[in-house]
Design goal:
The protein is α/β, with parallel strands linked by helices. The protein has one domain: Ribokinase (UDP-N-acetylmuramoyl-L-alanine:D-glutamate ligase), CATH 3.40.1190. It contains 10 helices and 14 strands. The chain has helices spanning 44-54, 69-80, 129-132, 146-159, 174-181, 189-196, 201-211, 250-263, 268-282, 295-299, and strands at 8-11, 15-21, 36-42, 59-62, 64-66, 89-91, 98-103, 109-114, 138-141, 163-167, 184-187, 216-220, 226-230, 233-237. The strands form 3 sheets. The protein has an 8-stranded mixed sheet, with helices on both faces. Strands 3-2-7-8 form a 4-stranded mixed sheet. A two-stranded parallel sheet has the order 5-6. Helix 8 packs antiparallel against helix 9 (268-282).
Length: 302
């Protein structure tokens, strides 16, 4: 009998998000009737975890949320998507994060999030012993909850499993600190520029590699695909050409797909191609993480 694969652990923040689709983004004051609308629980690591599940993997999600209607609705939505949310901490007296997103017919968007500053940063409640004893195949985290991310990345390194950082722009000093703790630092284009400055992509990655000699470094650049260094040589993987209707969550889908590919021991280029294709196909579907593709759809291009 084939042994069940270990789940991936995703640690971060989440919100109850309302997504509107409109023909055009507003210019000045306006009242607009949307073509479509939906409400979902999402977030960087949360959406990545949902993508893992859609692609045939298993994922747990650890977070702390306000114990109110928004926090409960967000976690219920993620649970419905197939995530194990049994280690989410509900914080009494704190409001759950919420967000409004407006997306136009070209896939461009306005994102308006609200996070309660009273949400505690403490991560001591997380059952880190589950990471160190080998319950998970990998850990994927982000910059939105630095204390939780740092603890999870350190535990993953101790366990000898991939410690993957979605390296987006964060509060001052957060990206630099978390990158030092990760085994795999997957930058957004803006995150890489914030960390190492503006330059051509090869120079940026060389700077990042010099700062992080013991980590794998790469960068997603939207429709251009994913770039990384291997033995000092610039490598590249592309997605597929699509008509982009909604780019919300595409980067999160990439990170979830890439993390899953790592745990399946895909070769570096195969893992990058797999993740790029998943992110591309997501952009064809309105609804943020709802558009994450299934395994068969991705493998048709890999």
């Amino acid at each position: 009998m084939r042994q069940e694969a270990k789940p991936l652990l995703c640690v971060g923040a989440c919100a109850w998000t309302t997504i509107f689709r409109v023909a055009h983004l507003p210019q000045g004051s306006a009242k607009i009737i949307p073509d479509a609308a939906m409400q979902i629980g999402d977030g960087m690591s949360a959406s990545a975890a949902c993508a893992i599940v859609k692609l045939g993997g298993h994922a747990e999600f650890w977070a702390r949320v306000g114990d109110d209607a928004n926090g409960r609705a967000a976690i219920a939505s993620l649970t419905e998507a197939g995530l194990d949310c049994s280690n989410v901490r509900y914080v009494d007296g704190v409001k759950g994060s919420f967000c409004s997103v407006v997306i136009d017919s070209q896939g461009e968007r306005i994102v308006i999030p609200r996070h309660d500053p009273a949400l505690p940063i403490d991560a001591s409640w997380m059952p880190l012993e589950r990471i160190t004893r080998g319950d998970f195949a990998a850990v994927l985290t982000e910059v939105r909850w630095p204390e939780g991310a740092a603890a999870a990345l350190d535990a993953a390194r101790e366990a000898g499993i991939p410690a993957i950082l979605d390296a987006e722009v964060g509060a001052l000093g957060v990206l630099e600190d978390l990158a030092q703790r990760a085994t795999h630092v997957l930058y957004s284009e803006t995150g890489l520029a914030a960390h190492v400055g503006d330059a051509d992509v090869r120079t940026q990655l060389e700077r990042a590699q010099a700062a992080l000699p013991n980590a794998f470094v790469g960068v997603t650049r939207g429709a251009e695909g994913f770039f990384w260094l291997a033995n000092g040589q610039l490598q590249h993987a592309a997605g597929v050409a699509v008509t982009a209707l909604d780019t919300l969550g595409a980067g999160d889908v990439f990170h979830g797909a890439y993390a899953l590919a790592l745990t399946e021991n895909m070769a570096p280029h195969d893992a990058a191609r797999f993740a790029c294709v998943a992110a591309s196909l997501k952009c064809e579907v309105f609804g943020g993480r709802i558009g994450a593709p299934g395994r068969a759809a991705v493998m048709a291009y890999c």
